[in-house]
Amino acid sequence: MSRLPEVVLVTGMSGAGRSTAARALEDIGWFVIDNLLPGLIPATVDELADDGSIPRVAVVVDVRGGRFFDDTARAVEALREAGTHVRILFLEASDGALVRRFESNRRPHPLQNGERLVDGLRRERAVLADLRAQADLVIDTSQLNVHDLRRKIEA
Fold first, then answer.
1. pLDDT tens digits for range 141-151
2. C-alpha 48: how far from its chain's center?
3. 73 touches 85 (CB < 8 A)
4. Contact in structure between 25 and 50 (CB atoms under 8 Å)
């Protein structure tokens, strides 16, 4: 019988540090998959379990997945029903911190849709509200630099 890997779902607000968290997890030995369609997560974890050589998997999911992001809750439930130990890590930050980060890298927010950045942030918070409520760990990165966040992830 194959052993199911431990799974952590890394999600949260755009600009809150998901990429930093993913790199930190990878550096401490997690197999990290970024931006996988949520509907494919259960099959991917099954495949990794069959292989047996990957004990810990981190999957980064966020609103970049568009309408596919809606499948995230079903994917988590399917994993749990299969007996997989799944934890949700949710990263967030204040609107002020996120606005500063987006302005410094000059990238548009994925839900901005040509409007104000804060409108995109408001939409994203609404889309993520249920997943945040289910999170095992919520980290507010508003006052953290990348090194602080890495230390928190490693701990």
1. 999 999 999 99
2. 19
3. no
4. no
With tokens 């994917």, the residue in question is 75
Using CA atoms, how far apart are residues 111 and 11, in angstroms rounded to an integer? Answer: 15
Residue 31, classified by CB atoms within 10 Å of its CB into exposed (0-12), middle (13-18) or buried (19+), is middle
∠44-49-55 over CA atoms, to 5°?
105
Query: Mind listing the pLDDT tens digit for each residue in 17-71?
Result: 999 999 999 999 999 999 999 999 999 999 998 888 899 999 999 998 888 888 9
Cα–Cα dist 151/155, whole Å: 6
Classify the phi-psi angles of 109: left when phi > 0, otherwise alpha if psi is within -120 to 50, otherwise beta. Answer: beta
- Structure tokens, 97: 């911190």
Nearest-angstrom CA–CA distance, 21 and 39 = 22
Rounded (5°) CA angle 145-141-96: 100
